[in-house]
Amino acid sequence: MSLTPREHLKLHGSLPERQLEQLIEWRERTEEVVSTTAYLQEARGQYPAEDFLACPIERLHQLAKKLRGENREALLGIIESLDDIAQTTFNAADYGRSELRKAEAALGSLDND
Question: DSSP for 17-55?
Answer without folding.
Answer: HHHHHHHHHHHHHHHHHHHHHHHHHHHHTTSPPTTTTHH
